[in-house]
Amino acid sequence: MEKIFTAQSTVGEIVALFPKASDLFKTYKIDFCCGGNRPLCDVLTEKQLEVDVILQQLQSMYEKSLEKVEKNWLDVPHTELIEHIIQTHHQFLLEELPKLTPYVTKVARVHGPTQPHLIQVHQLFHELKIELEQHLMKEEKDVFPLIIQFEKHPTEENRQMMIRAIEELMAEHEHAGDIIKNIREITNDFTPPVDACGTYRLVYNRLEALEDDLFTHIHLENNILFPRILTE
User: Fold this and answer.
1) Which DSSP string corresponds to 44-72?
2) What is the H or E stretch that residue 97 is in?
3) How far apart are the first and last CA of the chain?
4) What is 167-179 written as a DSSP string?
5) Angle (CA) 206 211 212, round 5°
6) What is the distance of C-alpha 111 from the center of its chain?
């Protein structure tokens, strides 16, 4: 079979074409959302990973995936992708952030005096929560309607407004990504101590699930929706 991916393919392009590649990238801690514009070879060299080995793994995963039919977000209309982002990823965050907050607070309060990193996790999570809630509102109230308006009325004025709004969103994505990466580092890849209580473990598990959803969310916007809009 023809090789689908090359060393010069960006990690964002790879995941856009083959969404399951995100599983492999997560295994190697490769940022495919905010860092999606980097060539695969540069990322792998930086991480001291063998380019040929990773390419072979990607190719093998891709060939196996051909046996299954998966949604290709590159092929759907903007409005359908936007609806999916809102109903799936925005809804997840709007439900999960307030539910997770009391657990993060409790773990920091109970265990923070002897494990100071938990105080930092609490502070970072609170910062992330505030930023994301404001970010989601901006997307739903301002930017997504602007994109839909541009589709109907593709004037230069609308285009410039949309470009500025998208650039602002992408900067916010990068900052949110940095916060969750910092939390991962502080928590030793969300690994609780062997004697951690149930709430402690719950917090780490749900923070990792939050990271997983957030990275997929950002990828859909940064590497599929926004580039498609900006090149029209």
Assistant:
1) HHHTT--HHHHHHHHHHHHHHHTTS----
2) helix 91-111
3) 32
4) HHHHHHHHHHHHH
5) 95
6) 29
Q: Per residue in 117-137, is it b (16+ CB within 10 Å) or e — as a string?
A: ebeebbebbeebbeebeebbe
Cα–Cα dist 199/106, whole Å: 8
Residue 184 · residue 211 · CB < 8 Å: yes
Q: How many residues does the chain have?
A: 232
Q: What is the 3-state secondary structure (H, E, C) of 105-158?
A: HHHHHHHCCCCCHHHHHHHHHHHHHHHHHHHHHHHHHHHHHHHHHHHHCCCHHH
Digit-coded pLDDT (tens) for 91-143: 999 999 999 999 999 999 999 999 999 999 999 999 999 999 999 999 999 99
3-state helix/strand/coil string of 9-25: CEHHHHHHHCCCHHHHH
Residue found by looking up tokens 């905010």 in the block = 34
